[in-house]
Amino acid sequence: MSLESRRAFLEKVASMVFAGMVLGGQEVRAEKVELPPRPPDGPLFPDLTYEDVLVRMQKDLERALKKGTTPKWVMVIDTRKCVGCHACTIACAVENKLPPGVVYRPVVEEQVGEYPHVTWRFLPRPCMQCDKPPCVPVCPVGATWKREDGIVEIDYDACIGCRYCLVACPYQARTFDFGENWTDGTPGEGRMPYEELPTFEWGEVHFRKEGVVPQSPVGNARKCSFCLHRIEKGLLPQCVTTCIGRATFFGDASDPESLVSQLIHQPNVMRLKEELGTEPRVYYLV
């Protein structure tokens, strides 16, 4: 098509469009539309508020400590949110000043799928705080027992280090303190100051310093306590506050308004080795 033919075609189309905009010899004009006033600056949905789960759990904890009856502590771990960062493992070791070989909250890693569709699955494993703990009846000196609030406690001063409870636990949640230190075999003389700091497990002060008798928890069975020393001071367990993915929840299961009470009744909840009848107080969302 030549330039003149193209120009004639466009002029014809333009005239047809203009004719369509005229009705009864009058040009159609668009009416002015009044727009609604601009809303004031602020949230798009002012009625919707967001509260971090840590804030809610802190409120649940404070309410549980003030209600006058014994709470029933439980922990819920959302495996869909766990990224396997091991921050909870490190935070637990720092909070409880754990020596080499003593781990309260390992994160079990599992590779699932087949190449090339392979991924990782992570499972944090604290003490299950079982309602029917197999570790309790095997202790020959009664150094471990089930508390009314649901936590299985160990008396370091009574423990004789027989390690029967380590064998009885089906979750491998107990470890033994052989008295090792992080600076053993390293250049220098003596321990580092941080290795001689006291621990506050079970609400008591324990020293691992040489010359202090008893040297508990050296020579004792040790395990996760849900950070009982923090709970009694109105603080959440260290692993809960450190989780970067907000995958760990803690609270009073006997409080119907608590977050954990709602989570443990979800259809996608499960507990480890329920067939053993141990009734663990750690729940997993899958």
Can you characterise this structure?
The protein is α+β, with helices and mostly antiparallel strands and 286 residues long. It is 21% helix and 17% strand. The chain contains seven helices and twelve strands. The protein has helices at residues 3-20, 53-66, 87-96, 164-168, 228-231, 238-242, 259-263, and strands spanning 22-23, 26-27, 73-78, 107-114, 117-124, 144-146, 152-154, 174-176, 221-223, 248-252, 269-270, 282-285. The strands form five sheets. It has a four-stranded mixed beta sheet with strand order 10-3-12-11. It has a two-stranded antiparallel sheet with strand order 1-2. Strand 6 (144-146) and strand 7 form a beta hairpin. The longest helix is centred in the N-terminal third of the chain and has 18 residues, at 3-20. It is elongated and about 105 Å long.
